[in-house]
Design goal:
Number of strands: 30
Radius of gyration: 28 Å
Strand content: 15-25%
Strand order of the largest sheet: 1-9-8-7-4-3-2-23-24
CATH architecture of the largest domain: 4-Layer Sandwich
CATH class of the largest domain: Alpha Beta
Helix content: 25-40%
Length: 576
């Protein structure tokens, strides 16, 4: 296999569904249905399968896990022919290296997405050997028994595509993440003409992005954002910092043009920003000259009015560029009176507090802060709202429909839209629930299958039991009980207790007589024949019981004995 991408071989354009009776197709979501992120959908025909997208979500780093990807074990029962990527966002490509460790298959996708993967070969050796195959729009290619065609759509990253997948049950149309932006350059707009051609041939099943299914209207145009950012930056008298999703190449390009117009230099703060800009420039997706870029380490050489910094960390990530700027940790750029910070991005649910904290830090410094809830024109979503979803349903006119990519309420809202549009066969699935598509485009529920989440830290798997123990320690603390026992499990001295994260030292001192008494009574109450294991467990339970009564929290209790190196493993906390 080669880590270099190469073009897919074209095949015939998908035609209308075949009439011959066959066993049909199974649709199996491994991620992204009933949740935001971690998108991965298997299409199965007989024993053959392809995976559409292979994404991650991000974990709470407080418990020592940073990336979460689907458990793909259920695919071991099939012959996986390849992975087909719709676009290059992390929730669509981030799990590819983990998937390739188990499934040695080609990966098909747009140049931009594959270039992002290829650039990670130093982080993931498997990508150095991966067979990455460039996909052009309107150029069908074979993946096992499937014929797949990529179709251009608009989204908040470069070269986003929908997919038309020809199967023995007809054409399955997967929108990927999309929006309609009629003001966009034609090369970045939805290819409505090709979708209409496929619709006339007949589309058996449509799978469609539901992220904004609870938002009326339309998502808005990138040109509107560019105009708003230009006005703010033209008026600014000092340094300007803009945080945005680094993958939004069109917005990056607009900011480059604005920098040139205003006599500023672009300073990239954050590795993700550097990576995306490097890939976009290599592929010829940026129109501003490279000379506009200025090294972060030389930022002190610029006058304040010459600085336009583009920072990562739009979700408040503590190690990203924006948070470092808020803490004055970027050498040569300490923001204050007269400077402007623009948050040109939406806040993903669950990250509000982190973002608000950073906004507060900038406000205390005296900087002007602009954010979408106050200035809605500085950001538009890359996902279709309800008007656009109706438009796609009308354009595709599918026989059957499954909403994808969203929490359960998003899926239900999108399903209602499909019914309003006249689609009679609608099925709502969550991860681990499959559907069957017959050759007559009849859609029905199929058997459930195994799904799960794999947590990783620094690309290595973290066992669920380890995460559970970390959460128990964080919530309830730990008590270490030194229990002197003889070989028969009888006490031969006074127990000693140390606690961390459970109670203050004065409280522990006051509680120690009661704890000691309860532990001694519990060990003596063990019915004969006694042994060290039974005495240890009795002492552990007594410790948890007394501390729980005193504090309302039952900590993790580890019991050691000075006469042995053995440690009684903590039981699952929450049980008596």
């Amino acid at each position: 296999m080669s880590g270099r991408s190469h073009p897919a071989s074209p095949e015939a354009t998908p035609q209308a569904p075949r009439a011959a009776a066959t066993s049909g197709v199974r649709v199996m979501p491994f991620g992204g249905l009933g949740e935001i992120g971690m998108n991965a959908m298997a299409i199965v025909q007989g024993r053959d399968a392809i995976l559409v997208d292979c994404g991650v979500s991000f974990a709470d780093r407080a418990f020592g896990a940073d990336v979460v990807h689907p458990d793909f074990t259920a695919l071991m029962d099939f012959e996986v022919r390849g992975v087909v990527i719709t676009h290059g966002h992390e929730d669509h490509i981030g799990a590819v290296p983990y998937f390739l460790r188990r499934f040695d298959v080609p990966v098909y996708g747009p140049r931009y997405a594959l270039s992002l993967l290829s650039d990670r070969s130093r982080e993931h050796e498997v990508l150095f050997h991966a067979d990455l195959i460039d996909v052009s729009t309107r150029a069908p290619f074979k993946v096992g028994p499937f014929t797949v065609e990529a179709i251009r759509v608009a989204h908040s990253t470069a070269e986003a595509t929908a997919l038309a997948i020809e199967t023995e049950a007809g054409i399955i149309f997967h929108t990927g993440d999309f929006k309609f932006d009629d003001d966009a350059d034609p090369s970045a707009a939805v290819d409505t003409a090709r979708i209409a051609e496929l619709s006339r041939a007949g589309i058996s099943l449509m799978l469609s992005d539901s992220t904004n299914a609870d938002r009326e209207g339309s998502s808005g145009s990138e040109r509107t954002v560019a105009t708003a950012l230009s006005a703010i930056i033209h008026e600014a008298k000092a340094a300007v910092v803009v945080t945005l999703f680094a993958s939004n190449v069109e917005r990056l390009d607009a900011l480059g043009r604005i920098a040139r117009e205003t006599g500023r230099r672009l300073v990239l703060v954050g590795r993700s920003m550097e990576r995306h800009l490097k890939v976009a420039r290599r592929l010829g997706l940026l129109g501003f000259p490279a000379e506009l870029l200025w090294p972060e380490e030389r930022i002190q050489e610029l006058a304040r009015h010459q600085i336009l910094a583009l920072a990562t960390g739009s979700q408040g990530e503590q190690n990203a560029g924006l948070a470092k700027l808020s803490r004055d940790e970027v050498l040569g750029l300490s923001l204050g009176e007269g400077d402007t910070v623009i948050l040109s991005s939406r806040v993903i649910p669950g990250h509000e507090l982190e973002v608000q904290r950073i906004i507060g830090d900038f406000l205390r410094k005296g900087a002007h802060v602009r954010f979408p809830s106050r200035d809605p024109e500085i950001h538009v979503s890359g996902h279709a709202c309800r008007d656009e979803q109706r438009r796609m349903l009308d354009l595709v006119a599918p026989a059957s429909f499954i909403p994808v990519h969203g929490a359960l309420h998003h899926l239900h809202a999108h399903a209602d839209l499909a019914r309003e549009a006249g689609v009679s066969r609608v099925q709502i699935l969550e991860n681990g629930q499959s559907a069957h598509l017959s050759p007559q485009a009849e859609l029905s529920r199929d058997a459930n299958f195994r799904v799960g989440k794999i947590f990783t830290w620094d690309k290595r798997e973290v066992a669920p039991s380890v995460l559970g123990e970390r959460k128990a320690l964080a919530h309830d603390g730990i008590a270490v009980l030194s229990l002197p026992l003889d070989g028969n499990g009888a006490l031969v001295g006074a127990p000693e207790i140390q606690a961390r994260g459970v109670m203050m030292e004065p409280e522990l001192v006051r509680a120690r007589p009661e704890l000691t008494r309860e532990i001694e009574d519990a060990v003596r109450a063990v019915s004969p024949p006694t042994n060290r294991e039974r005495s240890t467990e009795a002492a552990r339970l007594a410790t948890r019981r007394v501390i729980g009564k005193l504090t309302g929290h039952k900590p993790v209790v580890v019991v050691t004995s000075p006469t042995t190196s053995s440690i009684a493993a903590p039981k699952t906390e929450g049980k008596p």
